[in-house]
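Example 3.2
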Amino acid sequence: MPKMKTHKGTAKRFMVKKSKKGTKVLKRADGQNHFNSRESGNAGRNKRSDNVVSLPLRKTVLKALPYC
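Structure, written as tokens:
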């Protein structure tokens, strides 16, 4: 049986963190490509952080990234 392929688009967008408590999948906040000067200070700061994804999306991401 051949090895599964990693979905490269998913690998670029998500980070998988493993710890004793379990697996976390992190994603950068959306909408930060351009036109950020019109955002308020709080919105701009919130865009710079990583967010934990929901359980259904986490299952999908982990299937697309078999070797993380």
